[in-house]
Amino acid sequence: MSGSVPLREAALAAVADRLAAELSDAVVERARRAPVDTDAEALPHLVVRGDDLEADETAEPGRTHYRIGFGVSGFAAGTTDLAAEQALSLLHARTVAALAGWTPAAPGLGDVAEAGAEFRLYDADESAQPAGEFLARFTILAIGQPSGPWSS
Q1: Cα(150)–Cα(70) distance, integer angstroms
Q2: Mean pLDDT over each residue of the chain, to the nearest integer
Q3: DSSP states along the chain
Q4: In 3D, which of 32, 69, 37 has the Cα closest to residue 48?
Q5: What is the predicted pLDDT for the residue at 149?
Q6: Upper half-sphere CA count for residue 150 (Cβ side, 13 Å)
Q7: pLDDT at residue number 61
Q8: What's the rounded Cα separation, in Å, for the pair 28 and 44?
């Protein structure tokens, strides 16, 4: 093993750290599999999950360029349905503002790009309070070391 940190791990760790720093009022977690209980857990809440990794060996001789996909799920609530929807919109906008166009300091990582989002308000039988979630999708360019997909 030539590098110490895989590019994918470097990217996901940097994203979670950035969100925790920029959205200090939100709980930020990585790779959570259990659903967030919007009736019992602290909100707002963000969960960072890695998605696909695509490799391109033609962009630069001797180096592989990777596109790392990841998602950020956001959870928010309000006192009314409208307030919950507005809280989701605000949390999403803050998430995008923190990440889109940002370049992590880890070696080999490039700019983060927004790829879209889905929003959902929970039905009354799914949550005791007006609440919902979004899934924001992003990609980040990473350039591997000549020896493989390592950050350093």
Answers
A1: 18
A2: 94
A3: ---SSBHHHHHHHHHHHHHHHH-TTSEEEES--SPP-TTTS-SSEEEEEEEEEEEEEEEETTEEEEEEEEEEEEEEE-SSHHHHHHHHHHHHHHHHHHHTT---SSTTEEEEEEEEEEEEEPPTTT-SSSEEEEEEEEEEEEE-BTTBSB--
A4: 32
A5: 81
A6: 10
A7: 83
A8: 9
Q: Model confidence at 87, in pLDDT bands (50, 70, 90)?
A: very high
Q: For 103-145, how does the pLDDT look when each residue is reduced to its tens digit (9 = 90+)?
A: 999 989 999 999 999 999 999 999 999 999 999 999 999 998 7
Structure-token pair, residue 19: 């969100």
- Half-sphere exposure (CA, 13 Å, Cβ side) for 13? 11
Tell me if 72 sits within 8 A of 138, measured CB to CB.
Answer: yes
Residue 107 near residue 47 (C-beta atoms within 8 A): no
Which one, of 145, 73, 135, 79, lies nearest residue 109 by Cα? 145
